[in-house]
Specification:
The protein contains 7 helices and 3 strands; from the N terminus they run ββαβαααααα. It is mainly alpha-helical. A 3-stranded mixed sheet has the order 1-2-3, covered by helices on one side. Helix 1 links the parallel strand 2 and strand 3. The longest helix is centred in the C-terminal third of the chain and has 29 residues. The radius of gyration is 19 Å and the shape is globular. It starts with a strand and ends in a 16-residue tail after the last helix.
């Protein structure tokens, strides 16, 4: 048994997690990884079935800190979003977090971690700002309000902007693959393949 975990919108987002079952032969998972590659996806092998698998665990770790920063009055939701989109998140189109730290220098990251890690939120419950909005029925786009106001015309405009941004990022990956990949493996980023 293997799990396949796609990311929404699945027809655009390249990633798919191949999740190995406890008693599953690794060869079965590797065959499924190759099948996903042949379909133009970017598979990652999750060798152990854990809550949230791989990508959602990292996403939830970021969200926990983001909502805590709002709870503590350190930043507004808008500034948290800007910090991710126009700062470190901007670089994620070019390199994942581990490759980016290799490029920047592991010594710098290690030293910064020593200072930053002890102050990070490690709460086991959802943030207050999140719980309060859910309790008030402010669930985001589907109710017209969350951290932002969502009148119908803004929903339409935001969905169009979001889709356009995803397609532009996808074109960057496709262009990289065309520029450097002679193997015919369309869409596989450099960190997903062995070095040339």
């Amino acid at each position: 048994m293997c799990g396949l975990h796609f990311f929404m919108p699945a027809h655009v987002v390249p990633l798919v997690e191949v999740v190995r079952g406890e008693a599953t032969d690794l060869a079965v998972c590797e065959a499924l990884v190759e099948t996903m590659r042949a379909l133009g996806k970017v598979p990652v092998l999750v060798k152990k079935d854990i809550p949230g698998f791989l990508a959602n665990r990292m996403q939830h770790a970021l969200a926990r800190e983001a909502f805590w920063l709002v709870d503590e009055g350190i930043a507004t939701p808008e500034d948290v979003d800007r910090a991710v989109r126009y700062g470190f998140g901007f670089r994620f189109v070019a390199a994942g977090p581990i490759l980016q730290k290799d490029l920047a220098g592991l010594d710098i990251h290690c030293a910064a971690s020593t200072m930053t890690f002890p102050s990070l939120n490690n709460g086991a419950e959802p943030a207050r700002c999140l719980r309060e909005r859910v309790a008030a029925g402010k669930l985001g786009v589907k109710t017209g309000e969350g951290f932002y106001q969502w009148p119908p015309e803004r929903v339409v405009a935001e969905k169009a902007r979001y889709d356009k941004a995803l397609l532009a990022a996808l074109e960057i990956f496709a262009r990289e693959a065309r520029d450097r990949d002679a193997t015919g493996r369309r869409g596989i980023p450099a960190e997903g393949r062995p070095p040339n």
